[in-house]
Specification:
This protein is an alpha+beta fold. The chain is about 20% helix and about 25% strand. It is built from nine helices and 17 strands.
């Protein structure tokens, strides 16, 4: 079983059909992959061929580019000079965060095949609202990214949400897969069959272009002969979600925890909150995103690498939305396209579109710094997380009761 976020070339092609012109922002939104199978790894390699279908119209916007060149750049503030630089993540908060992290797995419905790794998620609780919520404050739900369920919502086939649909809908019946969650802190060998500690009984996905999803769970009994479950649903800690919708302070320390397609186990990361910008997400919609800078040095040590979609960033009194996009300036495919169809980048036959796409990635990084007013020179990766609103949790919770018309 394999499931990946679309490759960069296909994303560009889709953007042209939708009329999306901001290729640089689209590239960032297309770089988050989900899945750990062989096909997922192949997708990473294919991403290095970015630009084959790109046209000058999709990659270049001369008017905007000229306007940017005319503006005199403002001095960028170093991260250590930001007001929140001395706000650190306490050991207790970090432990709570790591303890609440989960990994989503999936397999074909009705099969006995092995569970395949999908996206990351965080166990959260939603405050009581008797008029809208029946579960109360102790019900544990998983917060993750909406693009993790593009197959279920139809976005893989280019389908757009029904404009008349409520803010979130339950797509559990739209899938040919069954889903579960595993405990990332439970040791297991690479060849050992995973055993979820809970089944996914509801998949509420935002239908208004926000990259959000919430999963409802039911405890799963451990079956004899399968891998150790580890902690149970009852023993898993959870972070209060809606109570912590607060804007972090620029410069404050941020904790990250991601299980990517190239890491055998979850990667614990630490970064800095650099600010909030608007950037196009996978749906081609410009939305606020919180930017966290990290210095991972290798993709194996990158807590925001492909496959970690849905993980969240946590600070003292702050929890972000799910990881939606990323940009790395040293080892991401868009920056290391040294060969294309066996043609070296130094050759005059190297495709101009691929080279231009590489340049746009660097331009995006510079523009992000300008928007933030902060220098990101000391970081090699920028991780972009969704920004929660006051009604985000309530809308996702209500979505469990709203099914698409096709599968009520």
């Amino acid at each position: 079983m394999a499931q990946t976020k679309e490759s960069i070339p296909s994303a560009i092609e889709r953007s042209q059909r939708r009329g999306v012109r901001n290729a640089a922002a689209l590239m960032v939104a297309s770089l988050t992959l989900m899945g750990h199978s062989g096909e997922s790894q192949a997708s990473e390699a294919k991403a290095g061929k970015a630009g084959t279908r790109a046209t000058a119209e999709a990659v270049l916007d001369s008017e905007k580019h000229a306007a940017l060149e005319k503006k005199k750049p403002k001095p960028l503030t170093k991260p250590e000079k930001l007001p929140g630089y001395n706000i650190l993540v306490s050991p207790e908060r970090r432990q709570q965060f790591q303890g609440s992290a989960v990994k989503i797995v999936a397999r074909q419905k009705g099969s006995d095949s092995a569970w395949g790794l999908r996206c990351d998620g965080a166990m959260v609780t939603v405050p009581t609202d008797p008029n809208a919520q029946k579960g109360g404050p102790e019900q544990k739900l998983v917060l993750t990214a909406g693009h993790c369920f593009d197959n279920e919502t139809g976005r893989t086939e280019g389908l757009e949400p029904d404009p008349s649909a409520p803010p979130a809908q339950n797509f559990i019946n739209s899938s040919t897969y069954e889903f579960g969650v595993v405990d990332p802190l439970t040791p297991h060998s690479p060849r050992e069959q995973l055993q979820p500690f809970a089944d996914v009984t509801g998949i509420s996905v935002n239908t208004k272009g926000q990259d959000w999803a919430m999963l409802m769970l039911a405890p799963k009994e451990n079956l004899s002969g399968e891998a150790t479950v580890g902690r149970t649903l009852d023993s898993m800690p959870a972070m209060p979600f809606s109570k912590e919708v607060a804007r972090p302070v620029k410069g404050q320390e941020i904790a990250l925890f991601g299980w990517s397609m190239v890491s055998q186990r979850p990667v614990v990361g630490t970064g800095r909150f650099l600010g909030r910008i608007k950037s196009e997400n996978w749906a081609g919609k410009a939305v606020p995103m919180d930017v966290v800078g990290i210095n991972s040095k290798t993709k194996q040590g990158d807590s925001c690498f492909y496959g970690a979609s849905g993980s969240v960033a946590v600070g003292e009194n702050y929890i972000s939305g799910p990881l939606a996009a990323r940009m790395n300036k040293t080892y991401d495919p868009a920056f290391i396209v040294e060969f294309f169809n066996n043609t070296p980048r130094s050759s005059i036959d190297f495709p101009f579109e691929v080279q231009q796409y590489r340049g746009w990635g660097k331009k995006w990084w510079e523009n992000a710094e300008a928007k933030l007013g902060v220098s990101a020179a000391k970081f090699d990766t920028l991780c972009l997380f969704g920004v929660p609103e006051k009604n985000t949790a309530t809308e996702l919770y209500q979505g469990f009761s709203n099914f698409p018309k096709s599968n009520k």
